[in-house]
């Protein structure tokens, strides 16, 4: 049985919120058949962002990245479904400037840095760590999608 309840953690970054992409990005995940199990609009602290991006703390752009992420609210979401982590990354695109058209970054981004619009977990470990960092257990909702029988055999 394929795992149809894999979860990935997605953030619409400050530029994505300010450029009015919340609805468009949510729509893409809904249309792809993923189930929303958690969602909130938050202004996260410096410490919170530093923990989230701990793998990048030696990067020269790290201080600037943390500042950009604190510049406004972000939408934190958990989406669930078959291969959600890998497919979520595919939907995101890659390097913002060079992402293929049809991906979120390929359609909405102009540059890396302050213009990357969206974050998505890149592994099962990252997804577990990120979800528990951003959401309490009771903020994640367990329910069945009414159209599940049309999404999975
Ligand atoms: O977001 P993604 O996983 O595709 O890329 P990353 O290499 O893990 O970098 C995380 C984030 O750091 C990017 O989304 C950018 O916001 C930022 N970044 C940056 O400001 N300057 C770079 N040269 C590379 C990344
Ligand atoms: Mg990354």
From TrEMBL:
Biological process terms in GO annotation: CTP biosynthetic process; GTP biosynthetic process; UTP biosynthetic process
Keywords tagged on the record: Kinase, Transferase
Pfam families registered for this protein in UniProt: NDK (PF00334)
Keyword Repeat among UniProt keywords: no
EC number(s) given by UniProt: 2.7.4.6
Alphabetical list of PROSITE patterns matching this protein: NDPK_LIKE (PS51374)
PANTHER family recorded: NUCLEOSIDE DIPHOSPHATE KINASE
Protein name in UniProt: nucleoside-diphosphate kinase
């Amino acid at each position: 049985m394929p795992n149809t309840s894999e979860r990935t953690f997605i953030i619409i970054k400050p530029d994505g919120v300010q450029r009015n992409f919340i609805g468009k990005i949510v729509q893409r995940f809904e249309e792809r058949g993923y189930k929303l199990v958690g969602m909130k609009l938050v202004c996260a602290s410096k410490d919170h962002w530093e923990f989230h991006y701990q793998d990048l703390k030696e990067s020269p752009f790290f201080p600037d990245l943390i500042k950009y992420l604190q510049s406004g609210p972000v939408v934190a979401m958990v989406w669930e479904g078959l291969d959600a982590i890998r497919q979520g990354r595919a939907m995101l695109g890659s390097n913002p400037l060079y992402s293929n058209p049809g991906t979120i970054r390929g359609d909405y981004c102009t540059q890396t840095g302050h213009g990357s619009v969206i974050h998505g977990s890149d592994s099962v470990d990252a997804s577990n760590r990120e979800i528990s960092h951003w959401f309490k257990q009771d903020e994640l909702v367990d329910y069945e999608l009414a159209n599940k029988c049309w999404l999975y055999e």
